[in-house]
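Please review this pair:
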Amino acid sequence: MNNVYNESILVCVYYGRNGERLIKRGCAIANMMKSPLYILTIDPKPFDELDAEKIFYIEQWKEYANSHPTAQFIMKDNESRPVSKVIAEAARENNITQIILGQTAHSRWEQLTKGSIINSLVREIPFVDLHIVSVSRYIQDEEGIYDKGIRAYLIKDGEHYKLSFNHDKQTEYEGIFFKEADTDFDNGIFRLMKDAATIHVLVIDGIVTELKNVDIHTAMGLDDSVE
């Protein structure tokens, strides 16, 4: 594959299902630009001390890298340095021009390092493009039950709330609506912030009867305990 645009893509992944989505985004960009792709994960623990769940994700990421003609997986374990330092080092070593971070991983790493990764990376490698990919517009939905989330609003309507796709003065909540696939009705899940917490509520025919958090697996019919 000829690197037509002289670009190199680095995808930074943290444990969780959103890593797959970030890698697919990186693959799409790398394919479009015919550029090499690097997948990086960082852990403060040595590899042989990682639990089974973390190793599962790492093996998946390796498979994704192997399936792409120019991808390479990079594991930085037993790392005590700030995450931004490790990312910057990997970027320099591999002549990276674009870095992709997920919003959740970005926030999690900031918690671990007690600082802004974005600001640190801008200082460390100022000539690299940073892409922060929002994961709030997606829910775990391997079965394809829900469409990609779109911005929507809840308007108080008597004892219930009415779904709207336009913001006005009567709007009480702003969030993301995940519509059920293959239906003409506004049925699905609405994600919003309430009392400083993220919750998911059911939407049936464009109406939310109560702001009660629902379990996503149950809402998708994936709870094995339910007959």
The radius of gyration is 20 Å.
